[in-house]
């Protein structure tokens, strides 16, 4: 059974389009084995975001989120969503922690002070900007500089956080909003960086996320997942691949999971991973 390991709810600053209950129901209806709500926690917010949306507190209310997850778990166990879901469906508690150099102490304290099933570590902001907002990050950089700097930042911050996370989230986030004809991040273009990052993940039992939100159309561009990244991860001893929709609404829960499960299988993997109580669980594709 496939799990959606990366979904957002009303507890994310940008999660107003859904709720824990609505997205859980969608995951069950789509035949998933479970879902983990990994709501946003970024301690640094670029000032430039005020030009695109109100500056908000991106540290979500953990007790409230987890209490709501417990409430919806009760509905599942009571048979609200059918007998099969009551027996097998797993509803999990997570966080997507935003990596940022100047917030390291806060990040360490945060992950140590809460109990989650799963912690995704992602880079949303770097160099005081958000790649999502207006293209400022890309100005003065060619595609190799922009993508390479992003990968270097992920590597540096992930190594620093160490055992404080379980999964690296959307490593090609920066390609979504880029202005370049070069749509995708590939192993061939950054082999040394990828070897270092993938080796670190493999040797430390970390998961590599396949974030299906990245591989959709953005204007005239459609980034593609490079199979060489997955093949190299396996060659280096990696075995934990996760599927995440990065959904902020019910429609995108489990989006294109069947396609990417088969894509992953074609690269030689036979299992997908998720985390429960910070321990990896592998299930057959």
Can you give me a brief rundown of this structure?
This protein has 285 residues and is an alpha/beta fold.
Mean pLDDT value: 95
Helix content: 25-40%
Helix and strand element order: EHEEHHEHEHEHHEHEHEE
Largest sheet: 8 strands, mixed
Describe the model.
- The structure is a single chain.
- With 285 residues, the protein is an alpha/beta fold.
- It has helices at residues 20-29, 62-77, 83-88, 104-113, 143-161, 173-176, 191-203, 227-235, 257-266; strands at 3-7, 34-42, 58-59, 90-98, 118-122, 167-168, 207-211, 241-244, 271-276, 279-284.
- Strands 1, 2, 3, 4, 5, 6, 7 and 8 form an 8-stranded mixed β-sheet that branches.
- α5 packs parallel to α7 (191-203) and α7 packs across α8.
- The chain is globular, with a radius of gyration of 18 Å.
- It starts with a strand and ends with a strand.
- The model has no long low-confidence stretch (mean pLDDT 95).
